[in-house]
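Data card: per-record layout.
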Amino acid sequence: MKAGLIAAGQGERLRHAGITVPKPLVEIAGSPLIDHVLNAAAAAGIDEVACIFNDEADAVEAHCRGRRGGPPLTIVRRTTPSSMESLFALAPHLRDGPFLLLTVDAVFAPAVLRDFLIAAAGHADAAVVLAATDFVDDEKPLRLTLGADGTVTALGDGADGSPLVTSGFYRVDPGVFAEIDAARAAGFTALRQYLSHLLRRGYRLVGVRAGKTVDVDRPRDIAAADAFVRSGFAP
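The structure for this 235-residue chain is written out next.
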């Protein structure tokens, strides 16, 4: 299975706090964020990763090209206005079968990703399988509500009050790329809006409960993720 890795953001909240290192290279427990994600992908059996970095990410690309081991990388360089557009930029590399979609700022135990893919394989009819967690430490989490069979019944505003939020990784069927033009015409500016659009259009979305994930957006998240990794990923 291929994976797509979204790592094109500017890390504005970190920059505003004086952290000038590109977000993918921010160190968590002695290793850059992007290495945590790529190592987890390798441990989960991913064959190839298509990565998108922004136009300023020379250091990120150089780091990745210098890595040894792990799945081969296809690198796309483009500054995009949103995570949704980053996904669309990777579409030409991900159209030949279901793929794993990752975001560079999600820190989780490698076993969590492996177990997620095993569970997602049981939902082959789903357009998107979302990893879900009840660990919430985000300013704007994407909440979701699940039916008894795991089907996503509400996402975003419609799921207010749900204890579950998305974890930052997904198994995606490339058939969803048929909605690219419609999503752009609607003026969507975020991946979460695209997912909500798919749900409204009748695509089947499924949620699979996964372990704790720490989303690294703010300086205090770095400390939290560092402690999480050094604890051996204790819940």
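Known properties of this structure: The helical segments are 12-16, 33-43, 58-65, 83-90, 110-120, 180-185, 191-200, 219-230. Residues 2-215 form a domain with the Spore Coat Polysaccharide Biosynthesis Protein SpsA; Chain A fold (CATH 3.90.550.10).

See the next section for split statistics.
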